[in-house]
Amino acid sequence: MKKIPSNQIRNLLILTCINTLLLLSCSEEFLDAEPQSFFTPSNALNTPDGLNSVLSRALVNIRQEYYGDGTPMITENIFSEVAIEGTTDKAGPAQDLNLQILPDANLNSENSNRIGWFWENFYENIKFANTVLDRLENAEFESQQQRDDIAGRAMFHRAYAYYRLTHQFGNIPLVLNELTTPKLDFVTTHRDVILEFIKSELEQAVNMVSPSSPGGEVNQAAVLHLLTKVNLAVGDFTGAIESSSQLINGSAYALMTDRFGSDAGDSSKDVTWDLHQVENKSIPDNTEVILAGVDRLEFRDVGAVGSGTSVMRQATPLWWRFINTPDGQNGMSDRPGIAIDQVNQIGRGIGRNRGTRYSTKDIWVNSNNDERHKLGNWLDMEDLVYNAPSLEEAGNSYFGKNLQLYLPDGTPLCSDTIRNWYGFPRYKLFVPDPTRVKPSGGHGDWYIYRLAETYLLRAEAHFWNNDNDSAANDINAIRARAKADPITSADVNIDYILDERARELYYEENRNTELTRIAYIFARTGKTAYNGQTYSLDNFSTKNFWFDRIIEVTDFYNIPEVKTVFGVQFTMSPFHVLWPIPAPVINANTQGVINQNEGYPGTENNIPPLTNIPTE
Fold first, then answer.
1. Three-class SS string for 269-307?
2. Is the Cβ–Cβ distance between 580 and 107 less than 8 Å?
3. Is residue 37 scored above 70 in pLDDT?
4. How many C-beta neighbours within 10 Å does residue 370 have?
5. How far is the C-alpha of 349 from the C-alpha of 564, rounded, in Å?
6. DSSP 3-state assignment of 119?
7. pTM of the full structure
8. How close are the terminal C-alpha atoms of the chain, in Å?
9. In terms of pLDDT, which residue wins out, 22 or 109?
10. Which of 222, 391, 411, 593 could cross-link with 291 by S-S, CB 3.0 to 4.6 Å?
11. What's the number of CA atoms in the CB half-sphere (13 Å) around residue 553?
12. Cβ–Cβ < 8 Å for 241, 229
């Protein structure tokens, strides 16, 4: 790993210090009824360093979505068409959604789902942003530029949180000021009001935030990228083209098309591999990264790292047991250092983020020379080999041969094909893990925003604006880098754009959020989808593109025959397009009404949401 510049070291140390400094009003409860002030009266929040420390804490919260065991990222994936919860040996994981996803259930558990994590952490980030913005007037700055940069980054964090929340939970409370006294009368504001508000703030922030920044910090490019998403969400497709084009055409950012970084001298690799090695994600040579989570092993002594990516544990199959040879012997071993040491090549997976047939098979039909699916970058289970030492010791002829799933008569050789048998992108999921004997996915930076997604967002905006020629050009820019066959304008629709997003952005994008955004656009515009259906905001929770898409392309939900080995059936309903507002949030708000989403208990108490910016 390359040496990190001193300004990045400073930034990482700030991320460490704020965990101590900001014990503040960080209650686990939403919008704490007894808010405490930051630090002490006449505190450090009247200085740029103090305000930056608060924004660094917001940055940590964004980063944490991608790290650790049972990472929140899994919940975003399993509420989409790219993955399901693959833990099959117990009840509790989010599989039978009709039964398990309820307002009063445990909505923030590493063992089930992390819906509550998003609510708590994004509202905490809103609190951080509001505090910074409200304290600007009494703070002293070295220059107007410094003040603007801090204010613009606070606007970004507030907009980032509200963009995600309005696509995960729909209509929600809009809070725009630091809370210094108890408040128990929150009300729900219509999501369109919130989205239009953050659009206007991001348009201001574009000209306030610095074009460049220390490693992992928000800069102008991140603001433009988020503004593009918000422009799409509110139906301003021309605005989305303009904001994405400003980033693509008018900045120092460019797609990585040449070899670079740690493995550049290895002729067996390619630029697709280089792009996704964690040590390459934030280096100066990488002109594609816009915003990345920073997690470096060399800073663990000062606490400036989390628990690592855990990505090989979460998203790689549980390949190391329950798979027999054709002659009935145990075929697999996760022991390191054996003759065929596969655990150090792919990690000790447990298959929690289990790719669907759609993301592991269907979108790769006719992939030809696409680097994202070539052998070595991508692995199917048939590419692994029987490696159990007992086979070698017995002289079994299957030792070292490729796995097979069935005998000629159709008898399966794997007892749990949900958890143990699916393909995966090794080039993304391989993260060296020197702290563990059996790797789980170690420390390293992770993409939050990169330019490839900006291209695909602009392609989508062109599609909504009925310009498929321009959409195809943007998609082909991504495909050309991967050596994939080009497409024509006749191929362009939302189905293809979502397919390309899945090929390029798997385990990077917030898939549920983006799929829901597209579902809202179909409902807002009334445009006929590729499936022949039209949608409306009037019945969004009972008929929507999000649900129809998942049911159409995946192979789990609402198919009674598909069950886990524990006997759990996979179910889903259209109303799951929006997650339940946690019941404790609603119950604690004794002097106001926070609405519950349709399909969940508690909607009988709903009142019309606000359609204007609240004054308090």
1. CCHHHHHCCHHHCCCCCCCCEEEEECCCHHHHHHCCCCC
2. yes
3. no
4. 18
5. 18
6. helix
7. 0.93
8. 49
9. 109
10. 222
11. 25
12. no
CA atoms of 300 and 297, how far apart (whole Å): 5
Phi-psi region of 295 (alpha: psi -120 to 50; beta: other; left: phi over 0): beta
Which one-letter amino acid corresponds to residue 221?
Answer: A
Residue 310: how many CB atoms within 10 A of its CB? 25
Polymer length in residues for the chain: 616
- Residue 558 confidence (pLDDT): 78
- Amino acid (1-letter code) at residue 389: P
pLDDT at 31: 46
Share of the chain above pLDDT 90, in %: 87
User: Which of 504, 484, 489 lies closest to 366, judged by CA?
Assistant: 484
Are the beta carbons of 229 and 163 closer than 8 angstroms? yes
Report residue 532 as tokens: 């022949």
Residue 483: which residues within 8 A CB-CB, separation 6 or more?
270, 369, 370, 371
Confidence of residue 16 (pLDDT cuts 50, 70, 90): very low
Three-state secondary-structure class, residue 93: coil
Helix (H) / strand (E) element for 152: namely helix 144-168
Q: What is the pLDDT of residues 286-316, one digit of tens each?
A: 999 999 998 887 765 544 446 799 999 999 9
Between CA 73 and CA 352 the distance in angstroms is 11
> Average pLDDT over the chain, rounded to whole?
92
Residue type (1 letter), 605:
N
Return the SS3 of 571. strand
The pLDDT score that the predictor gives to residue 29 is 45
Answer whether 551's CB lies under 8 Å from 80's CB.
no
Q: Within 10 Å of residue 101's Cβ, how many Cβ atoms? A: 23
589 near 574, Cβ under 8 Å?
A: no
CB 399 within 8 A of CB 392: yes
**Regarding predicted confidence, which is higher, 21 or 81?**
81
CA dihedral 506, 508, 510, 515 (to 10 degrees): -30
- The confidence score (pLDDT) of residue 18 equals 33
| SS3 per residue for 308-352 | CCCHHHHHCCCCCCCEECCCCCECCCCCCCCCCCCHHHHCCCCCC
What pLDDT does 180 receive? 87
The angle, 0 to 180 degrees and rounded to 10, between the axes of the packed helices 451-464 and 494-505 is: 180
DSSP-derived letter for residue 423 is -
**554 close to 548: Cβ distance less than 8 angstroms:** no
Task: Give the Cβ contact number of residue 591 at 10 Å.
Answer: 9
